[in-house]
Amino acid sequence: MEAYPKYKDSGVPWLGCIPEHWTTKPGHAIYKEKLDKNIGLIEKRILSLSYGKIIIKPEEKLRGLVPESFETYQIVEPGDIIIRSTDMQNDHTSLRTGLVKDKGIITSAYLCLKSLNPDRSNFNHWQLHGLDLMKVFYGLGSGLRQNLSWKDFKRLGLTIPPIHEQNLISRYLDWQSSKINKFIKAKKKLISLLKEQKQNIINEAVTKGINPDVKMKDSGVEWIGEIPEHWNLRKLKHIAKMKSGDNLTSVEIEEKGQYPVYGGNGIRGYYHRFNRSGSFLLLGRQGALCGNIHRVKGQFWATEHAVVVTLKKDICLNWYYYMLIFMNLNQYSEAAAQPGISAEKIQNLRTTVPPLNEQEQIAKFIEEENSLIDKTITRAEREIELIQEYRTRLISDVVTGKVDVRSIKIPDFEPVEADVEAQEEESEDEPVAEEIEG
């Protein structure tokens, strides 16, 4: 894409030069602050800002909220633009702007902007989204935590292309964003299928073995089905010892140190002592992700939030790791405000146990097969990263006038939104199983 023929100084330090026929105006000439409290609870639909999108908050995520608290929320309507204006000091990664598409209520901690010219709403959204990607807002906040107020925002210099050009820019970015979202959806679907394939390889290998000609027998356990005739069934407590780690307060855990400290979901920091040395499996004991499995090597401190698995001599650690992944221990968590799994309950579960040499063969087979799939997953994830980087650069360049899109022919296209809710579910519910070396 080409640049505009002529440029001029915008007078805005962070913006630099803009197309000669564009103008700049302060925020208060384009927006007004909207303050419409939900007095009397007249609006019930609760919205949230997630991944740069304003979404309807699912009912299952409203636990613990009482209706009276919603009177302090603000009512927003389609076309309004929300800026998460809090905590600029600490959070430099989140997307902070979103265009409202559904009437509802959202926390009053956010800044709600209404375009003075409704025809500008979509362009305004893209422009502020571009500034968000460029991290412009971080230089505007005030106070100890650098919160962004209307007083700060209204002085922000913003570019004003002619209205017909705003519409062209908006339509161009809608088109490009839809193409990119479609590409990302396809890649994420591929990744999901590949992860499913990895899980199927694990499931098949740890329950059926890797010899297709072996004689089978009924295991007597419904969820396991048939197993090789020479395999045994044993309770977990007969093949491994499970014990919680030792208490360590957050004050004692340091950012740097000699020995890593592991909780149930990975490394938490460092400590000057260790309570385990060797190769172990750690199970997450508490929280929504309890049952997560980690392989840990070396000298480290295991906290009380991790269940340390010590194996008997006839058990291969890598095979047992994959067996526990197959068993999906999270399904045995006990419902509570803080979900958790009981080591005693887990140890009474039964599983298949092949001879040691076969355990080693199975573990090696799984790792070889899944390493090929992992390479494809890594490549797809990298492609997503690159297209997201391209989108960030494209939006920033277009809304600031660094590139000229006026002559580009935009075909009819089907709008494709980013699947925000699917992204949230993925990040919260995807099983975690990784190898950690201390």
TrEMBL record:
InterPro entries attached to this UniProt entry: Restrct_endonuc_typeI_TRD, Restrct_endonuc_typeI_TRD_sf, Type-I_RS_S_subunit
Statement: the UniProt record of this protein carries the keyword DNA-binding: yes
One Pfam family matching this protein: Methylase_S
Signal in keyword set: no
CDD domains: RMtype1_S_Sau1132ORF3780P-TRD2-CR2_like
Domain named Type I restriction modification DNA specificity: residues: 228-368
Keywords, comma-separated and alphabetical: DNA-binding, Restriction system
BP terms from Gene Ontology: DNA restriction-modification system
Region feature (Disordered): 416-438
One example GO MF annotation: DNA binding
Cited SUPFAM superfamilies: DNA methylase specificity domain
Xref: PANTHER family: TYPE I RESTRICTION ENZYME MJAVIII SPECIFICITY SUBUNIT, TYPE-1 RESTRICTION ENZYME ECOKI SPECIFICITY PROTEIN
Family per record: Belongs to the type-I restriction system S methylase family.
Record-given protein name: Type I restriction-modification system S subunit
